Each structure stands twice: as structure tokens, then as C-alpha cells.
Amino acid sequence: MKILHTADIHLGMTTYGRVDPTSGLNSRLLDVQRAFQFMVTRALEEDIDLFLFCGDAFRNPDPSPTEQMIFAECLRPLSERGIPIVLLVGNHDHPVTFGRASSIDIFGYLQGQTRVFRRPEVTIVQTKRGPLQLIALPWPVRSLLMTQENFRRKSATEVRELIEQLYVEYIQSAATQLDPTLPTVLAGHFSVQGAELAGSERTSLIDHEPKFTVGQLALPPIDYVALGHIHRHQNLNPGGIPVVYSSSIERVSFREADDPKGFVLVQIETSQGRKQTSYEFVETPARRFIDLYVDVRASSNPTERILEALARHPIADAIVRLRYQVDEQAAARVDVQRIREALRSAAAIASIERTLEPVERQRRTVVHRETSLREALERYIDQHETLRPLRQELIEAALALEARLEAERT
């Protein structure tokens, strides 16, 4: 059985984008659409049995009609082929107001086998290669899991711990009821202890979310744990039941500049009553983010130094941020217009940021008529670090010269 596992599409992010003259849409919307279409094309080529999306379809729970249309159009080839589609509600999909539909509930009405999960559920998904057991664990929303009485007098920490307990007990109960001969997937949108965060994720928020251990998720007869929420692709249980974050399909910020973006193709094979799981990470054509820092403080021609640094990177069609550090007195010699011209092939210039290295201004040595030679020289030497090791020799030489001049005068 073949499954495509993806998550964290975040359609609707427009940072660093500009209006595309052909479509009239923000270029970053088109970037996500291109990655999405690439993923669906690969799914059709692989003849997958299930398209499994583990949460966060949009950047917020109130996507525009255009964003919803793009998402639906990308899914349509799967639906037309008769491939089951499973969508989990993520934290970005869920509305703040109780009772409102999530941003992806509408896709449950798509033609074909499309199912949206906003509450925990154990179910059977029928595919062309047979049934698949699915434990669906969407983003743990407090109001959907507990009554007001459950958490009315509890602290935030106690509520989080109670949610964790409810999910763990749910998984343990489900595992005992599963048919061990059938392919089985646990799909969730939440944090797992030990996961390496992508640069765009805020540790302060992750720390206060419900969090689970690998051992609480990777329970037999589960064959694969498909996760969303953290944008960096990783397997948290190498050598055991795979516990995998798929990664997002597009970059969100410069803190993800070096992270590969993509999705996961999963295969669960059953032979003679035994099951074996393998998977492959597939990169999408995500927009490149290039973050350059150039130190030109020691350069007599800072503009040329910056241009040389730019020439060493594939600027074309990338989103570029340039930061350079320059001496204060040389700042005026940086030709920003030439730099912008060199960046003309970039998809977008996020920023050109300058950091000035201030000139060290030495205090003037004040010498009065009554100041002795020794005192004046000591003040001068104390303000010049390079002369301090020679302090005594210089003073002695100066005093000797002074004595000699006095002798000549007399």
C-alpha cells in the first residue's frame, strides 16, 4: 500500500511576495501552488492509495476564497482519480470561536472519498489495495476534548497535562482494538518530545503545547506515525516504527533557508502475515531563500567586495536578504544602486541591511603650559594602546632629550 504523507502547506502566506502580472496573484501564493501541484503530480505517477494531509492547510482559519479555490483545484486530480483523501485539522485551521467550521471542513464535500477529521477517531479507509486502519488525531482542541467542568478550575499546565493524558489513553485503547494483519497508520498534528524545530517555529509556543513521547505513539500494530505541525522533516524513531514529520512544502522564512522542503512517500508491504514499512522523502521545487552576510570593514572598495560575494551565489529567482558590515567612514562608498542592479534577477529582495562599525574617536590630549613633559607624555601614551608597551622607554628617552636640551641652553 502506498501513501503520500504531507502537512503544513500554509497556503496564504505572502511575505516577500509581489503581484504576478499574469495572474494578478501574490507570487508566494503561486510558489505554494507550484509545490502543491508538483506533489500531486508525483502522487499520481506513484499510483498512491491514500493522500494523507496532517494539518495546517492555510496560514489562518479564515482563508480567502482564492486560497480555498487553489487548495481545491490542487486536490481535484486526486479526487478525479478516485484516490481517498484524508485531511486533519491543524492549529492554523481551527477557528478560535466555538461552533464555527474549520478552514478545511468544506473539503469534506468534494466529490470522491475526502474525509476531514477535527476530532480523534479510529476508522477504516477503503483503498484500491484494500482497507487501511487509521487513528486520526487532529490538533488537540481543549473545547472539543473536555467539558467546561473538566478544566474550569485547572491551571494551564493542568489542562495541558489532561489533554496529553486523554490522547495517550485514546491511542492505547485504539491499539488494543486494531487488526494486526491490516496496514495501520496513526496520523497526528502536534509536538513530539525530541523533535528538532525548523527555524520558523517559536520555541516559546511549542513549550506550552501538549507534547507526546515516541513511545506513546509508536505502539504495535501501528506501522507508521504520520505527523504535522513541525516543519522540519525527521524520523524520531529510527530503527523502529517510523515516527515522521513530513516537512512543509514551501519555506516560510529565512530561518528555514537551509531546510529541504518536501513530502513523504510511504509504502507498507504485507507478506506472509508480516508487515514492513519503508518511506522516501521527496523534495519539492520550493523557492530558494538566500541569506548573505558580507563583512567589508577591511575593504578599500566595499561595493566591489559585496558584488563579488553576490556573484558566488545563485541569485536568479531566489528571495535574497543581504546584510553587510562596513566602517563608518567607508559607508558612503557603498553604491546601493549597483547592488540592487546586481540583484535584479532575484524573485524578491527581502532587504539590504547595513551595520556600521563606528570609528573609534580618541580623546584629545590636553596639555597646559604648566604640565610637565613626563605628565604630558604619560597622558598621550595612555590614550594610544600601541604605545603602552613602550611606556617606560619612551618616557626615559624623552626626559633624557629634555635634559640634553636644557644643558645646551645653559
From TrEMBL:
<dbReference type="GO" id="GO:0006260">
    <property type="term" value="P:DNA replication"/>
</dbReference>
<dbReference type="GO" id="GO:0004519">
    <property type="term" value="F:endonuclease activity"/>
</dbReference>
<keyword id="KW-0235">DNA replication</keyword>
<comment type="similarity">
    <text>Belongs to the SbcD family.</text>
</comment>
<keyword id="KW-0233">DNA recombination</keyword>
<dbReference type="InterPro" id="IPR029052">
    <property type="entry name" value="Metallo-depent_PP-like"/>
</dbReference>
<keyword id="KW-0378">Hydrolase</keyword>
<dbReference type="InterPro" id="IPR004593">
    <property type="entry name" value="SbcD"/>
</dbReference>
<comment type="function">
    <text>SbcCD cleaves DNA hairpin structures. These structures can inhibit DNA replication and are intermediates in certain DNA recombination reactions. The complex acts as a 3'-&gt;5' double strand exonuclease that can open hairpins. It also has a 5' single-strand endonuclease activity.</text>
</comment>
<protein>
    <recommendedName>
        <fullName>Nuclease SbcCD subunit D</fullName>
    </recommendedName>
</protein>
<dbReference type="InterPro" id="IPR004843">
    <property type="entry name" value="Calcineurin-like_PHP"/>
</dbReference>
<dbReference type="Pfam" id="PF00149">
    <property type="entry name" value="Metallophos"/>
</dbReference>
<keyword id="KW-0255">Endonuclease</keyword>
<dbReference type="GO" id="GO:0006310">
    <property type="term" value="P:DNA recombination"/>
</dbReference>
<comment type="subunit">
    <text>Heterodimer of SbcC and SbcD.</text>
</comment>
<dbReference type="InterPro" id="IPR041796">
    <property type="entry name" value="Mre11_N"/>
</dbReference>
<feature type="domain" description="Calcineurin-like phosphoesterase">
    <location>
        <begin position="1"/>
        <end position="232"/>
    </location>
</feature>
<keyword id="KW-0269">Exonuclease</keyword>
<keyword id="KW-0540">Nuclease</keyword>
<dbReference type="InterPro" id="IPR050535">
    <property type="entry name" value="DNA_Repair-Maintenance_Comp"/>
</dbReference>
<dbReference type="GO" id="GO:0008408">
    <property type="term" value="F:3'-5' exonuclease activity"/>
</dbReference>
